[in-house]
Amino acid sequence: MSSHLSYKDRQLLAVIGDEDSITGLLLAGIGHVNEHQKKNFLVVDSKTQVSQIEAVFQEFTERKDIAILLINQHIAEKIRPTVDKYQQAFPALLEIPSKDHPYDPSKDSVLKRVQKLFGDQ
């Protein structure tokens, strides 16, 4: 199996985020439900268990149809060890700000890895 084949089917964005972030991205057209009734997004609120966030993160990072996984940074903080362990190229993992939680570059796992590569830490 050539590596080209494994990447061409990755056409979806997936999102783990708060209601405002998910709503905005769904309005932008990223929503998808596959033939197994699996969604490509998880709305996280105060009642969402950390174990559920972890499980959906694992599911999204193992799916072969997802190219990019967006996660609100304040939600990534809840599962930081799992996020920091994730090192695959696909799906690419991006931490994004939310309306109530500004982006903090010092917490971004990808940015930390890049800084290590270039010796900026």
TrEMBL record:
GO CC aspect terms? fungal-type vacuole membrane; proton-transporting V-type ATPase, V1 domain
Keyword Transport annotated: yes
Its family? Belongs to the V-ATPase F subunit family.
**Lineage, opening ranks:** Eukaryota, Fungi, Dikarya, Basidiomycota, Agaricomycotina
A GO molecular function held by the record: proton-transporting ATPase activity, rotational mechanism
Compartments it resides in: Vacuole membrane
Protein name (Swiss-Prot/TrEMBL): V-type proton ATPase subunit F
InterPro entries to which the protein is assigned, alphabetical: ATPase_V1-cplx_f_g_su, ATPase_V1-cplx_fsu_euk, ATPase_V1_fsu_sf
Species, as recorded: Collybiopsis confluens
Q: Relate the assembly described in the record.
A: V-ATPase is a heteromultimeric enzyme made up of two complexes: the ATP-hydrolytic V1 complex and the proton translocation V0 complex.
What keywords are assigned to this protein? Hydrogen ion transport, Ion transport, Membrane, Transport, Vacuole
Its predominant location is membrane
State what this protein does. Subunit of the V1 complex of vacuolar(H+)-ATPase (V-ATPase), a multisubunit enzyme composed of a peripheral complex (V1) that hydrolyzes ATP and a membrane integral complex (V0) that translocates protons. V-ATPase is responsible for acidifying and maintaining the pH of intracellular compartments.
> What membrane topology does this protein have?
Peripheral membrane protein
